[in-house]
């Protein structure tokens, strides 16, 4: 009888370990998202808006100011890209989220670089269908990566019973 009781303890210990690990994952995801990824994602959005504003200024003949805004936005996005490159986390869900966010920022940076190449091609009279197709594919890739990131976040919210707080931050359900 004593032997059977010992074997029953193993599944109970295993279940408790899984439950405790899941609780740790929730906190790790929330901490990473709120402390690192969400602020950086907001900054990427701000820089894309800044880039757009620079384009508008170019269209209105404010060349120097427009180019300055576009360059500053691109440089800031590149700095975000560099700061997230190669980060490593013990939590697999956090690492997956980090990797997907990095892929998104890379796609945005690649798009901006492609946009500069398109501007140069236009200025030299070499902008044609191939350049247009390349630019459109870069836009599509950035949008695809952002959608994948949003989907991953929504999956995590469901899987780990997380919830949205004000200001777009995450929290664990209580």
From TrEMBL:
Name assigned to this protein: Lipoprotein
Organism per entry: Alteribacter keqinensis
């Amino acid at each position: 009888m004593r032997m059977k009781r010992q074997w029953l303890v193993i599944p109970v210990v295993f279940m408790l370990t899984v439950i405790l690990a899941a609780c740790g994952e929730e906190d790790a995801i929330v901490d990473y998202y709120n402390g690192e990824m969400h602020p950086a994602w907001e900054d990427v959005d701000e820089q894309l808006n800044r880039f757009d504003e620079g384009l508008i200024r170019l269209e209105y003949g404010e060349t120097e100011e427009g180019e300055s805004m576009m360059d500053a936005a691109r440089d800031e996005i590149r700095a975000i890209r560099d700061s997230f490159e190669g980060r490593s986390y013990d939590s697999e869900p956090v690492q997956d989220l980090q990797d997907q966010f990095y892929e998104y920022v890379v796609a945005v940076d690649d798009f901006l670089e492609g946009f500069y190449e398109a501007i140069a091609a236009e200025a030299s009279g070499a902008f044609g269908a191939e350049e247009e197709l390349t630019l459109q594919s870069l836009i599509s890739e950035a949008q695809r990566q952002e959608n994948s990131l949003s989907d991953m976040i929504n999956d995590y919210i469901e899987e780990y019973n997380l919830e949205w707080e004000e200001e777009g931050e995450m929290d664990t359900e209580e």
